[in-house]
Amino acid sequence: MAFECDGAQLVGTLDDAAGSTGLLLVTGGNETRAGAFSGQARLAATIAKAGYPVFRFDRRGVGDSEGYNMGFRHSQDDIAAALEAFRTARPGLSRVAALGNCDAASALMLACGAGADALVLSNPWTYENAEADAAPPPEAIRARYWQKLKNPREVWRLLTGGVDIGKLVRGLRAASGPTAAPSGLADEMAQGLDKFGGKVRILVAGADRTGQAFLSGWDRKDPRLSIRIDADHAYSGDEDQQWFVEQVLAALADE
Q1: Could you count the other beta carbons within 10 Å of the beta carbon of residue 161?
Q2: Domain ranges in the chain?
């Protein structure tokens, strides 16, 4: 369906279901509403099958939508317009949770939720420009090693020679560096989230560099935070994907 945002025609897709709680999917990067390898479309179908309507959309200048793509930092109006279109298409909705991965999560934080009732934020993007090419911050490496040491299978691998010692030594050397200061973007995101009054779930894939960078500047004792230790950025493993879907469904069911 088509809807407007600041004079541009945007296009969205409704995966309908009978529930009164809905999910708004916000895409990251320059992805279309189908997502990378149709990941958004498959996720929407799964959530709709569980009884929750899902709306996904192309922001301005992306996919089927008109206008100029100004990037995630300036997508607040796009998200708000999509949310309004969702509620117009489904007037029976009493609650909408918004889900974003990577810079889509960052966009939702910067926009203070953009009018959604709840947020699911996955691997929020905190890099400033070229920083994305840098190695994971030392504190992220330390935290990952600590999580592995709490896993009996990882300890067994170490004791039985299943770990590359050279790689381990290089990792420990990198982990010994000083803690980096949070980026300006991370500070802005935290301030935006502080102004959001609804329920929040923050999901992080432990094997993802973007997630690791986010964790390096975030309070790990935050009760809203859940970490999937060995998952990649897209939670592409079968068990990781199941965990991710369960987290989203739990957020939708959490009144």
Answers
A1: 8
A2: 2-133+181-253, 138-175
Query: What tokens appear for 91 in the block?
Result: 């007037």
pTM over 0.85: no
Alpha helix locations (H) across the chain? 39-49, 76-89, 103-110, 138-149, 152-159, 165-175, 184-194, 209-216, 238-253
Three-state DSSP at 87 gives helix
Q: What is the CA radius of gyration of the chain?
A: 19
pLDDT score of 152: 72
Give the closest residue to 122 by CA, choosing from 102, 95, 145: 102
Query: For the chain, what percent of residues have pLDDT higher than 70?
Result: 79
CA distance 101 to 27: 7
Secondary structure element (H or E) that encloses residue 254, with its range? none
Strand partners, 118: 97, 199
| Contact (Cβ atoms closer than 8 angstroms) between residue 67 and residue 8 | yes
Is the domain defined by 2-133+181-253 classed in CATH 3.20.20.70? no
User: Is 44 within 8 Å of 25 (Cβ atoms)?
Assistant: yes
For 121-137, write each residue's pLDDT tens digit: 999 999 986 455 555 55
Both structure tokens of 206: 């432990």
In three-state secondary structure terms, 72 is helix
Alpha-carbon distance values, 246 to 46, 107, 177, 201, 252 (Å) = 11, 23, 36, 12, 10
E strand or H helix that includes residue 119 = strand 118-122
Q: How far apart are CA 41 and CA 13, in angstroms?
A: 9
